[in-house]
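Section 3.1: Structural characterization of target chains.
Under the original work plan, the team committed to producing a structural model for every single-chain target entering the pipeline before any wet-lab resources were allocated. The record below documents one such target. The sequence was received from the expression subgroup and is listed exactly as submitted; it comprises 632 residues.
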Amino acid sequence: MVTDLSKASELKSCDNCHDSASIADSLSLAHRQSPRTLTRETVLRHRIGQQTLRRDLTSSCTQCHGGTLSLGDGGLINGAGIQSGRNPEACSDCHGEIVLHNRQEFAPGETFAPADSANFSGALFSGQGINASAINVTDKAARSDPFDIHLARGMVCSDCHRAGNRPGIRTVGAALKETHLKQDPRDVSIRGYLHDPDHSLSTTLQCDDCHRSGAGHSWLPFTQRHMSALACESCHIPELFGAALESIDLDSAYATFRGRDEQGLVRGFTPVLLAKGDKLAPFNLIAVNFEESSEQKTSVLAVPQNHGVVRDAAHRDCATCHWPEGLTESLLSLGESPTSDPPVFVAPAEVAAPAFEHVGGELQARSHPESASRYMLGAKQLAWADRIGMLIAAGTLAAVLLHGVARFLASRRRGVTGEARKRVYMYGVYERFWHWLQATAILILLVTGAAIHKPYLFGFLNFAYMVALHNLVGLILLVNAILAAFYHLASGEVRQYLPGTSDLFGRMFLQARYYTRGIFRGDPHPFAKDAQHKLNPLQQITYFGLLNTLLPAQIVTGILMWGAQHWPSQTTALGGLAVLGPLHSFMAWLFAAFLIMHIYLTTTSGPKPLSGIQAMLEGWEDVEESAGGDTL
């Protein structure tokens, strides 16, 4: 029997059943290379465009399907030892160790595979639970997920990286209709394509080819919005534990790796999110340093993350992303940089470059969701909206405090004066109900809105609950506003809020003069108050603007932000969340300023500071009998 495989005749052996020439032609350039001559540095040089792979190579069948082979007489390969494409060893020579079984503790050894996934992406190909492995991982006992859930379910490489002409893909059957799967990639037949199987491996299943993305995510607020903005891997590959490259010098082969501390303990690392088309997807970034024309150059290679998928440990906390410096704006170190020049970014198609910066000789990359036209509530802070809004609210608060102190000191100087008052039924039952429901809703909306836009100040509040409560109370405010508008129009009470044009500026001047001068002298209000005239001219102007401009604008922007997942084109046409979010937040500051002023002015309408609030609770108010006199 012939035992030297170099003397094997693939033409005589494989061509009896397969079209070897056609199969060889379908191989990609990368799969034509031999793992025995290819190196990691060669692969990196090829990926950054510095070196091309050899095109004159013709890969042999036994290179991937060799297994434990023996030869018969005449150079015929004994088919009993051939490994099929479903055998992980067909891929492991180039892509690193692949372990399906759990018979012993998984401990990946030193690998020399030229395209080892552990080196490039950080993914470890094992279905074993992390806490059952032999790897020294931080918080190991609490990590119950496998390194990759697909391998733990018995899947192999070719279940997703399949031949384009592979038959037998089972459609949804009765057994799968109630699950999150549309098909079972393990239940396939390979007999129909044995003669000429496509080896280009250009057909790769995506998550939604098998999974119903909506199933199992009912807990997620704005599910559709998240699905349209994030690749599944963004949440389901939260951390990787392989020795992923951080940087490498191609000339010296010196490399640094991610996720290891100085003692060698495996910490793992979190991939950086980059915009891939209109979604954010996870990547490992590798700084590839080399010398060219006597100058140091750096290219940054973006390696997409598709392996290392978990279920239970997937990101579920809203603060992971909706937080300043959260996952969507995280920094990823790329090691010490030999040059201060901007690096050349090398990535798959449609991947936007991160923001690079040199800090203390170290190259860093920051993901930024705006590159995918995404404004992240809670994560993105626009200074103009907060600074101007806070200035207005703080100015209002300072003004009422100064005014209140001045009133108190003036009243102390004047002494107690008992002006004549009469009791008037001022506010009906529905008017009081509408007022307090609206006031409560606005207060809740301000608090929950602040927790959404400024989660770092309200870490004790659950972000998801705040979003749900904000939406619910916003709906209540909208319904209350519609019913109130109907009531005021039908009853004629709307006239209370119409300032009229007859000597408007003169009446406004009288009221302003009272607040700035007369109130400190103990003068009566310049305008009499009764059930038909509840508001003075300044209040009428303020409420007219509030109810006809600010409140509708706040409701409309809120609806558009909520409806971004249902009507994305309408939201985008108005600038998207990047415009609506800060505008909505700025108008909330205006509401806060109005509430400060409104609550303070209630202290000026009665004999006691709480008389105005008491009147809105009971309906009856004690009004000045002498009000309406000329204070000039």
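The longest strand covers residues 279-292.
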